[in-house]
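If your schedule permits, I should be very grateful for your opinion on a structural question. What I wish to show you is a protein chain and, alongside it, a tokenised description of its three-dimensional fold. Would you kindly read the sequence against the tokens and tell me how you understand this chain to fold? Here, with my thanks, is the record as I have it:

===
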Amino acid sequence: MNDDREHRGSFWRDNSLTLAFGTAFLVVLACQAVVGQAEFNEQLTVEGLQPLAFGEYLTSSDFAVDVTENWQSEFLQFFLYIFGTVYLVQRGSPESKKVHEAGTESEEEQRMGDHARADSPRWAGTKDWRQTLYSRSLGTVMGLLFVLSWLAQSITGTAAYNDQQLRQLEEPLSWAGYIVTPDFWNRTLQNWQSELLAVAAMVVLSIYLRQRGSPESKPVGAAHHTTGVEG
């Protein structure tokens, strides 16, 4: 009875991390839309044009490019980090595997094939293309999301850039023409460098600093050289 009651009342607790960040994402996205509309309408007013209603701004290329350019940099960060940490290590960081574990590891260590357990995902216990695909599914999906969001950014960026060109009575560009412009790469690279810096800072700072109770930190009393241990 107690187990059933605990199970029925555990949804919010068991999914609190996803729910909290999902809610925060929606709140911040809504705030971005509000301030983005205000900034965009200020530009239109200066140019002597009619401001956009909130609904019109939400469906505009200007709002879409601002959103997608951040999404693609985040997915790039996770894609590179997921694949990079297979072979690259950082001694002393909980964000790294233990130094001697670099590489894809054995099937026994990964609980694959004959070493799969009763509660292992079904495809982990196969020995064909399903195991190969599933064993790389996280990085593959992150890479796919990066490519799709990058493509979305380039398309919406082209539309936003051409809107500005037309307001200035200048010739619009094709998609192929836009993705080689400084505007596109300035938007892209400023996001990439910030994400890479954040990852590098997390890897290095977690060697020496601690956060009690966080799985992103080593135990408070762990030695600085302890690697791949979370608290």
